[in-house]
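Figure 3 (text version): structure tokens given as input.
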């Protein structure tokens, strides 16, 4: 019995469409029960009126939830093209084609690593400018509402993010990360709406990043906020792989890395340093998400 109660608690706490439909049916049933009890006190056709109202309420709400669920299936595809085949046609340089081997299988992905610190022997310094704020291009500004409305089925909250402006090499395995500020709304209308066709064949990718290679960070017109992605391995050998929410701004309902978050700017407007970027933000992200 306790297990059933716990499962019911998590079911009604969730944001699944099954829960919304179940709640709608329960509310409609309550209306019907009340109508049945009230009909003995009234001589009018109140029973039929309440029954009709409850039925209309249930049908309309279930329809709304189903339409919302259907729209979520296509929202991500409109915003970002995840086809490896399409990306490799655009970015034809062989450096973007990576082979990933797993047991007896292999897969081709389109990927562009800026730095690969395999032996953990790189020295990275941070040069942060919290007063420097990214501004969208004139074209993005003119189409801001259109691009922003693509995320209508997503849960959105604006916040200040940390932008990667440039990676400067200053010596053998020595680099400086040049950082500034942006916000999550800027990210939504650039990086997370890169493939939406504003006009026929006209998208942010076809306008700004049409290939055959990606522009350097310092020439990019995208928000490019830093993301923290990490795998958490537990002592018993398991790996934490959470499932994203149904209203995430991208990759809805998909399994993701243990931590997959934006790097938020420090609340007190202080500088981002190496400890904040490579340690504190990861620990904070782990505590927040898990």
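Below: residues designed for each position.
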């Amino acid at each position: 019995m306790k297990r059933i109660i716990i499962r019911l608690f998590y079911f009604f706490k969730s944001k699944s469409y099954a829960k919304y439909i179940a709640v709608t049916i329960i509310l409609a049933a309550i209306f019907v029960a009340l109508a049945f009890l009230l009909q003995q006190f009234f001589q009018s056709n109140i029973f039929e009126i309440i029954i009709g109202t409850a039925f209309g309420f249930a049908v309309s709400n279930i329809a709304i939830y189903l339409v919302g669920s259907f729209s979520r299936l296509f929202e991500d595809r409109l915003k970002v093209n995840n086809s490896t085949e399409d990306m490799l046609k655009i970015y034809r340089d062989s450096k973007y084609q990576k082979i990933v081997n797993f047991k007896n299988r292999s897969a081709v992905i389109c990927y562009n690593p800026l730095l690969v610190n395999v032996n953990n022997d790189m020295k990275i310094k941070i040069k942060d400018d919290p007063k420097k704020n990214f501004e969208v291009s004139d074209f993005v500004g003119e189409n801001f509402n259109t691009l922003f409305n693509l995320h209508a089925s997503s849960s959105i909250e604006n916040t200040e993010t940390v932008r990667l402006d440039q990676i400067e090499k200053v010596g053998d395995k020595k680099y400086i990360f040049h950082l500034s500020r942006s916000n999550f709304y800027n990210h939504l209308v650039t990086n997370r709406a890169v493939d939406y066709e504003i006009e026929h064949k006209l998208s942010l990718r076809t306008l700004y990043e049409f290939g055959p290679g990606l522009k350097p960070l310092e020439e990019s017109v995208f928000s490019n906020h830093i993301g923290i992605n990490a795998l958490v391995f537990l002592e018993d050998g398991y790996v934490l792989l959470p499932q994203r929410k149904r209203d995430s701004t991208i990759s809805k309902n998909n399994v993701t890395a243990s931590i997959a978050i934006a790097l938020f700017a420090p609340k007190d407007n202080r500088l981002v340093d190496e400890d904040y970027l490579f340690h504190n933000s990861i620990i904070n992200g782990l505590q927040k998400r898990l």
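Residues 46-79 form the longest helix (34 residues).
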